[in-house]
Amino acid sequence: MLGGFVLGSPPGMNPDWPCQRLRAPVLGLNDTVWWETWMAPGPAASGSADGLRWRRRGDLLYGLVEVAESALGAVPGVSPLERAAELAYQQLFDLLDRQGLPHLWRVWNYLPDIHGQEAGLERYRRFNLGRARGFESAARSVVGRVPAACALGVCEGPLSVAFLAGPTPAVPIENPRQVSAFLYPRQYGPRSPTFARAALVYPPGQEWLFISGTASIVGHETVHLGDVAAQCRETVDNLEAVIAQANTLRRGRQPFELDRLGLRAYIRHASDLETVRGVLHERCPKASLLCVQADVCREDLLVEVEAWGCLPC
Question: Quick check: pTM over 0.85?
Answer without folding.
Answer: yes
